[in-house]
Amino acid sequence: MASLAFSAKTVRCISPSNAMVSDQYESKRRGLSFGKGIFARKHDPRDSVVTKVATQAPTVIPSLEKELAGDRNHVAWTSVQQERWEGELVVEGEIPLWLNGTYLRNGPGLWHIGSYNFRHLFDGYATLVRLHFENGRLTAGHRQIESEAYKAAKNNNKLCYREFSEVPKLDNFLAYIGELANLFSGASLTDNANTGVVKLGDGRVVCLTETQKGSIIVDPNTLDTLGKFEYSDSLGGLIHSAHPIVTDTEFLTLLPDLLKPGYLVVRMEPGSNERKVIGRVDCRGGPAPGWVHSFPVTEHYVIVPEMPLRYCAQNLLKAEPTPLYKFEWHPDSKGFMHVMCKASGNIVASVEVPLYVTFHFINAYEEKDEDGRVTAIIADCCEHNADTTILERLRLQNLRAFMGEDVLPDARVGRFIIPLDGSPYGKLEAALDPEEHGKGMDMCSFNPAYLGKKYRYAYACGAQRPCNFPNTLTKIDLFEKKAKNWYEEGAVPSEPFFVARPGATEEDDGLLISMISEKNGDGYALLLDGSTFEEIARAKFPYGLPYGLHGCWVPKK
Fold first, then answer.
1. DSSP states of 392-438 as a string?
2. Cα–Cα distances in Å, from 361 out to 138, 157, 438?
3. Sequence ranges of the domains in the chain
4. Which residues hold Fe cation (predicted)?
5. Does the pLDDT at position 45 exceed 60?
6. Is the dihedral of CA 236, 241, 243, 247 positive or negative?
7. For the chain, which has fewer Cβ within 10 Å, the N-terminal or C-terminal residue?
8. 410 contacts 468 by C-beta, under 8 angstroms
9. Residue 94: which residues within 8 A CB-CB, separation 6 or more?
């Protein structure tokens, strides 16, 4: 691995250009649009206040220079320039003084080892980014998570563990047999925790991915890798949902059973590493469980999705990626939604629903009648119109080859309606017209105080066509069925993460944090007002960062 040294220099604040905002109704709200019309307006640097100076410029890793030279490679899909960096940023605008704490964002950020380039967005080694807000100032940093997979690759200058689409190259047949044995035991599966990061109720911060062994504890202040999060129970298994439900009082997740197709629903208390079984759901269709990247809950129920995009052991064994990687599409197996009581573990509903494909559920709640009896479960997700091609569109070759064609598959806010009256069928419909958010929808968040409750607002990444990846930030009003959209030409925004204002009584009283990767190689942190969706502040990084996935908020103690 090349040297990762960097030099200290002063970075001057450069006013951003081509910052586009929009508003169909020509309202006074700068930086947003309502609905289907999008009209551009440049960000005016005269509206900003520079509050604090900052930072260090990087030294580019020599092995990346060729990759970085390609104009067609957006910085969002380019490996991070160095292993770690930290510094204070220049802020344009004003950071609210109530915003005190740390936003952490995890995601794949290094897509090569030596001269070998990875295939898929989800293959990259994890890059953890930190934004620390205190007294109106912003300190930022990033660091590679030191998983065994990352350390082995760096030490051996080659891939050593199985990633999402990548398999280590083996020298001979005997080595392949050994690799298969390691696969069945889980030894060859990656611990590259490149998907999400959560703060447990006891304060520990854990980075996660689809494999159970890829649960890694980090220090939110230094970004140091502290060690593996080892589960102390005997439940076993190799995989789990990459998105557990985490609150101050509990941790809920799903453990797919690949041998006897189904799911264990488990709970873990704060301060404990022991998962306890709430109940089990047996699959109703297909040769294997459906992929459960995420799942929703209500106040009293866990909703277990059984998607027709199912895990495939055969694909897992193959040395080269199949079209759907570790999965297979089984439309004949149908799609289902199961509802389990948190208290008893009993299944209170199991309904067939239209075919669907989703990575991310948004939220769910209980629909009640006039007497307060629960009659149905409403569960919302970012749904890709039962189209699995989204996985193929996330190949790095496709992301880097954008030439202006509109190739992003359509998506919507998919709303499941699951009756609790014993009916065998549920519904799936669009919660609002997908044109409101450009028929792009993923990477969602909402006010966490409304977890499992009836809610009005969701925040996500939408689309300004033509595009090959979600390129807007959008605020969804599920009551009015409208959307406000933020857009900047050439920008790729990451998940908009909602932080509520302390003491807030309105659902959207807070702000959104997103990190923006720019076409020109730059990047910045962005704050938007949760109510108006106007820009509050931005702070430029010393260099653009690769696209990241999911984050969490660690409030100041």
1. HHTBHHHHHT--S---PPP-EEEEEEEESSS-SB-EEEESS-GGGGT
2. 31, 37, 19
3. 75-555
4. 243, 293, 360, 550
5. no
6. negative
7. C
8. no
9. 49, 51, 136, 536, 537
Residue 550 assigned to a binding site = yes
Record the tokens describing residue 382, joined without a space: 């970012």
Q: Which strands sit side by side in the sheet containing 347-353, from one edge to the other?
A: 301-306, 335-341, 347-353
The DSSP output letter for 239 is B
Buried b (16+ CB within 10 A) or exposed e, 139-175: bbbbbbbbbbbbebbbeeeebbbbbbbbbbeeeeeee
Whether residue 129 contacts residue 105, with contact meaning beta carbons closer than 8 Å, is answered with: yes
Cα gap 383→425, rounded to integer Å: 18
Instruction: List C-alpha distances in Å: 416 to 318, 349, 368.
Output: 35, 13, 15
What pLDDT is stored for residue 171 in this prediction?
65
Which among 268, 265, 312 has a CA at the least distance from the CA of 286? 312
Beta carbons of 524 and 539 less than 8 angstroms apart: yes
Q: Any binding-site annotation on 384?
A: no
Identity (one letter) of the amino acid at 446? F
Does 360 carry a binding-site annotation?
A: yes
Spatial separation of the C-alpha atoms in residues 215 and 229, rounded to whole Å: 5
CA–CA separation, 333 and 391 (whole Å): 20
142 belongs to an annotated ligand binding site: no
Whole-number Å distance between alpha carbons of 539 and 363: 30
Question: In the numeric block, which tokens belong to residue 38?
Answer: 């999008």
The answer to whether 83 and 58 are in contact (CB under 8 A) is: no
- Give the per-residue pLDDT at 137: 98
Q: Is 7 left (phi over 0), alpha (psi -120 to 50) or beta?
A: beta
Q: What is the pTM of this model?
A: 0.88
CA–CA dist 501, 255 (Å, integer): 35
